[in-house]
Amino acid sequence: MADLQNVREPRNREMKILILGLARTGTSSLTAALQQLGYSPYDWPDRCMLGHLPRWTEGLQAKYLNRGRPLEADEMDQLTSDFDAIIDTPCCLLVDELIVTYPTAKIILNYRDPHRWLKSMQDTVFAVARWPSWRILAYTDPRYAGAIVQHHITLWDEIWGGDEGERCREMFVEHYNYVRKVVPPRQLLEYQVQDGWGPLCRFLEVEEPKEPFPVVHTGTQFMRTAVRGWWDCVGRSIRNAGAVAACAWILAYGLFWNLSHESSCRVD
């Protein structure tokens, strides 16, 4: 471990918190709460907008499917250097790697009732993933839509078996039991966002805000965000298609000009 740390570039921020609960367990509300407390969480939107998602997906593939390059400690540092907390999928599935890389970080296991979690996933994440248009957008907007589609296929279809029912709920329970097994109790806070500021602030040893605990990304809010994200992908696809069409026109014009020029030269 010491040798590994010696070759790593210094971080811009010390990694203070690892949040290892799965998506749809209050991650967006917890992110907002941590920001309010002065932290800078590395969340799902950050990975998407910064173009990091494909690398984390490849890290999952290397660990669970034996293909691609593993995500090593020094690269994790490069990706998360501007943040001091890590939250949400796919990062939370690399439990062992994160714990080894950041041994002094406090760990929060955000959870909810497994049956309610599954129902939330079916109504939001899985429902959105079934929109047929994603297959087209994955090709026309590869940087964003393509990365999201590949991540969903890797995690929910290949690693978790593609089941959106009982098997998925069992995998949820297995993940939480594994975190409880490998993390020392003194370093772990099991937490539901309904618990509010008290347990969270005591665990982090920070002052409790006077403002209400944030409630973000309910099922309805999630679907509205998903629709906006879909339209963003459509907009990028249109711009990409326009760029391709422009390039095709330029190439066709250039080819026509070259052929015409060669013909005139032969006539002369």
UniProtKB/TrEMBL annotation:
The keyword Hydrolase applies. The keyword Hydrolase applies. It comes from the Eukaryota. Gene3D superfamilies: P-loop containing nucleotide triphosphate hydrolases. GO terms for molecular function: hydrolase activity. Keywords: Hydrolase. Pfam families: Sulfotransfer_4. This is P-loop containing nucleoside triphosphate hydrolase protein. It comes from Aspergillus caelatus.
